[in-house]
Write a structure and sequence with these properties.
alpha/beta; seven-stranded mixed β-sheet; single chain
């Protein structure tokens, strides 16, 4: 209850004061009783003043209950469009819309504030927020105008620096990069607000690295002498000369940097690169492989393939290699930076594992260095950077190729899949099924097994297998008409008995010769040869015969023949390289490799041999620096490699023909003349197991 005091013009006489108070007491008491009675009778309360809507809205706003605040601000403005609290109500509505990224709506409220209350104290803040909204909407001219107004009107030092920084951003959006750099320089010179200063530095670095032309870099580097951002400009000039393999330009830019900034963090490393560049010579290919440690065998196989190709093609005059051991105890990033900083190095072959490739992506991008790995094959690896390439045999490539070969060449339509519950098995199953269905085929069953199993009875029964005893019984019941034949396929059973012949003997049948009729034409088993050698005899034991068998590259071992030779039947599997291929280029490669290293080449040597060949051919076509190598790799088509005719996809992955293999006369032979096929651009499956590099 509010109390109001009424001042009289003339005080009552002192003698009359007490009497006056007693005289008015009955009237006052009557008034109180009347009011109480009205309250008891439920008198209507007075309406809440409109100003209370604003206060409630403010309470919600500062408690971050914006959905509750918004309608109250609007209600206040409807009832009080020119009220005392209208300017902050417009401003709050603008801020709420801005926080919700409704920048056009936010601008509407800020504009209403400025047009209706041009002298209000919030006009400066509203103008600043309008500039931010225009920046978000990429209306850079309007944003620049607003921040210029803020700079003219505000006396707040921090807001001045923020407005200058944001005005520079607007000029950057207007492509006035030199003007933006000048304003950012002014922000950076101030010492009061390090947060604004550091953001300005980052944007200057981005402008120099991404936006300026070579001519602008040269001109600005001369303008600033030893003042900021001369160091960044010189480093960018050094990077450009490195990418172009302009050794003289690199030396000049490096000399300038070392003279002007002798104690900069980059100076020691740059001095080493400068010294290395003085040797000159042909383009160099960096090679990073594990030549010691647990992956040394793989690293040596890859290096042998590279060395053979370089030496065969007169590499010492056209392209030389600079080899680093990734298992020697130094961080791989340090090894890459050593090579990447050398302007003679035009590309990198390696590393071996997918994790190492992922680790060096930032360096590949910083130094614009194309990286080509012949072994790393984890999913989506090449998609991580436009500078990552590979011709590794991936799981998706295997599954897609095999599915297409099975459907289009072997004319199979219905498939069952028996796969190991491991990452590689799951991926091969998934990609095979997707491709089969895309080609109009059908996968009627997928059954998994554990890698530790030796007894596969449960899985084979799930695929429709039946023991001899049960098969004979079911066949007799079918022949005697005791049971109707169930339908085959997804809606029925995966197998049912079929009687080929028999002799009636009274009410019985003699010499019955039952077999299984299957709901599928082939079984895809993406497992290792040791488990496949156990599975195939058990399939026959449970009468799953006369069905095509399909396998991944993990089948390709002479041990498979020793384990399950007579059960292989009509089996087809594949690999990314086959040393026994009748193709002339493969036999020539195998012969040269064996003479040089005294061993038969495997997949990694073949893929490395082809990867080195792709670099050599790129150089022969005139790609003698990183920029040109990058352009060449992006469009490389139909390279006649020993691991298949190879085309590099826009994704950085490779499409190539694989080798389909069969067992004949107790040996593995190539079945196909290599096929031409098309793989999806996202081709990027992973390695076969932990023992193989790339995982």
């Amino acid at each position: 209850m509010r109390c109001f005091l009424v001042k009289r013009k003339e005080p009552l006489p002192a003698a009359d004061g007490l009497w006056a108070r007693w005289r008015c007491a009955p009237l006052a008491l009557l008034l109180v009783l009347t009011l109480l009675a009205a309250g008891v009778q439920g008198a209507e309360p007075k309406p809440v003043p409109a100003a209370n809507d604003f206060q409630r809205a403010e309470s919600h706003y500062y408690a971050d209950r914006l959905d509750d605040a918004y309608p109250l601000y609007e209600k206040y403005l409807r009832e009080n469009p020119r009220g005392a609290k209208a300017p902050p109500a417009y401003y709050r509505l603008g801020r709420i819309e801005q926080r919700g990224r409704s920048f056009v709506s936010a601008l509407k409220y800020y504009q209403l504030l400025l047009s209706q209350f041009p002298r209000d104290s919030l006009r400066g803040e509203a103008g600043f927020q309008m500039g931010l909204c225009y920046l978000e909407l990429e209306k850079f001219a309007e944003a620049e105008y607003r921040f210029q107004q803020v700079l003219r009107e505000t006396r707040d030092r921090k807001r001045q620096w923020e407005a200058l920084y944001l005005q520079a951003r607007a000029e950057q959006g207007l492509l006035d990069y030199e003007g933006a750099i000048e304003k950012f320089r002014r922000v950076i010179e101030q010492e009061e607000y390090p947060g604004v200063k550091s953001r300005a530095r980052e944007l200057v670095s981005k402008i120099i690295d991404q936006k300026l032309t070579d001519g602008q870099i040269e001109a600005l580097a001369g303008r600033y002498g030893s003042e900021f951002p001369a160091d960044l400009l010189l480093l960018k000039r050094i990077a450009l000369k490195r990418e172009q393999r302009d050794l003289e330009g690199f030396k000049a830019a490096a000399d300038d940097f070392l003279r002007l900034f002798p104690v900069a963090p980059e100076s020691a490393r740059l001095a080493n690169w400068l010294e290395a560049s003085k040797a000159g010579g042909p383009p160099r290919l960096g090679v990073i492989l594990p030549l010691t440690g647990r992956l040394a065998v793989t690293g040596q196989q890859v290096l042998q393939g590279i060395q053979l190709r370089i030496n065969e093609q007169g590499g010492s005059e056209r392209l030389t290699i600079d080899v680093r051991d990734s298992a020697a105890g130094r961080p791989i990033e340090e090894l890459v930076e050593e090579l990447a900083g050398d302007p003679r190095v035009v590309g990198l072959l390696g590393p071996v594992t997918s994790q190492e490739v992922q680790d060096i992506v930032p360096l590949a991008e910083r130094y614009k260095l194309p990286v080509f790995t012949p072994t790393a094959s984890s999913p989506e690896l090449a998609a991580r950077s436009p500078y990552i390439y590979r011709n590794a045999l991936t799981r998706q490539a295997q599954a897609v190729f095999l599915a297409e070969y099975a459907v289009n060449h072997l004319h199979l339509r219905r498939f069952a899949i028996l796969f190991p519950r491991e990452t590689f098995g799951e991926e091969l199953k998934q990609h095979f099924q997707k491709e089969v269905e895309g080609l109009g085929g059908e996968v009627v069953a997928t059954v998994s097994y554990d890698r530790s199993q030796t007894d596969f009875r449960e899985q084979i029964l799930e695929l429709g297998g039946i023991s001899d005893e049960n098969l004979d019984r079911l066949a007799r019941e079918k022949t005697l008409g005791l049971e109707d034949a169930p339908p085959l396929g997804r809606e029925g059973v995966l197998a049912r008995p079929r009687v080929d012949m028999g002799l009636w003997e009274g009410e019985d049948i003699e010499n019955i010769n039952p077999s299984l009729e299957l709901a599928y034409d082939a079984i895809f088993i993406p497992g290792f040869y040791d488990k496949v050698g156990l599975i195939l005899p058990q399939l026959v034991f449970y009468n799953i015969e006369n069905v095509a068998l399909l396998g991944s590259r993990e089948w390709n071992s002479p041990e498979l023949i020793n384990l399950a030779g007579r059960y292989l039947g009509d089996s087809t599997f594949l690999d990314g390289f086959f040393a026994g291929s009748p193709r002339g280029e493969v036999q020539s490669f195998v012969s040269r490799f064996s003479r040089t290293f005294g061993d038969t080449p495997g997949l990694y040597s073949a893929q490395a041999y082809d990867a080195a060949g792709i670099f050599i051919e790129s150089v022969d076509r005139g790609a003698d620096n990183r920029v040109k190598i990058q352009e060449a790799l992006k469009t490389f088509k139909r390279f006649p490699g020993v691991s298949g005719v190879t085309t590099i996809l826009p994704s950085g992955d490779s499409q190539r023909e694989l080798f389909t293999l069969k067992v004949r006369d107790n040996g593995i032979v190539q079945e196909n003349a290599p096929l031409e096929k098309s793989l999806p651009e996202e081709n990027a499956p992973a390695e076969k197991n932990a023992a193989v590099p790339g995982g």
